[in-house]
Structures are given as C-alpha cells and as structure tokens.
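#lab-general

N.A. 3:47 PM
ok so I finally got the sequence cleaned up, no stray characters, all 197 residues accounted for. can someone with queue access submit it? mine expired

B.Y. 3:52 PM
send it over

N.A. 3:53 PM
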Amino acid sequence: MKVRIRSGETEIDGPTSERADDLDAISDARLLQGCRQGDPQSWDTLVHRYERLVFSVALRSGLSPTDAADVTQSTFIALLEACDRLKDDERLAAWLITVARRKAWRVIRRTSREWLSAEVPAEPTPGLSWEEIAVLHDALLKLAPPCRELLLALYFDPEKPSYAEIAARFDRSVGGIGPMRGRCLQRMRALLDEGAV
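B.Y. 4:20 PM
back already:
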C-alpha cells in the first residue's frame, strides 16, 4: 500500500483494473480471505473501500489532515497484522472504526498532554455509559478551541478553578464567562443534536 499526502489529503493507491469493479461487489469476508492468501487485488479493494471511512474517523476525532493520514496508514497496517485473527469478517467496518478512533486518541494524548486528564475519566461518570462519554468526547473535539478550553476548565479541570481564575486565563471579565459558557454549551448541544459526532 502506498500513501501519499498532498494538499492535506491522503491518497492511498487502490485498484485500477476493470476487475476492481467486480471486486467491489464481493463481501468483506471474501476479500479478507483473499488477503490471507496473499492476493494483492483483494487488499487494494479493501483499502479502496474503507480508506475514506478510516480517514474521516481520524479527522472527526480532531486530528489534522496529516495526522489523520498517519492514523489511516497505521490502521491499515494493523489490519494487515491482524488479518488472520479477526473473529467476524463481516464486521470489518466496525473493527476499522474502533482501531482508527483508538489510534486517533493516542495521537491526541501524545500531542496535547493537558488534554489527557480531561479526555476520558478513569471511571465512567455515574449515569453515563462509555459510549456516551465517547460521544461527549467527540463533541468536545469538534468545538472551536476557545469553547473547548473553557468547557474543559469549567467541568474537567481537576483543580476546579474559580470563575475569576478562568476569566484571568481567558483574558475576559468574570461577568463574560457565564455568557460564553452558555454559547459554548449551545454549540455543543447543536453538535450532539445534529449527530455530527
């Protein structure tokens, strides 16, 4: 597999022959079987079929296009390494999404240490499932940096800073923090309501 990054986009070479059209109709299970037998056309078809999905999962997790391309490549490398151990070949898309999301989270943790403590609590918040926490995490990543940083400071900072400390951190008046919080929560609700996460 060849990956090229050009203008912030990832390109992964895919099948080019007419046979590729026929392979698009073949199930994931059959393509994975071909991959296990060393068929490069099966591999090219799987990559072509899922590269945009994997890339979009990485982007939606808050990565830059370059980092998303790296996550895309490492996700397909993980598939190549795990090909013989997959338990349910027909659930390949779900497997790729899970691997891409985990790899993206690792990149985020590695590149922003201050984000680590707020990313996912050590234990689920009472009343929230891990899936709900992941959805909230994705919504936070979609927010613009000022809103994300404000909500993290207000709700996830282990030191529980006062409004005065947060106002100083954001170079705003104490009276401006409440309205800003309201606008940020509104944006986050909109993201959650439209299913953009």
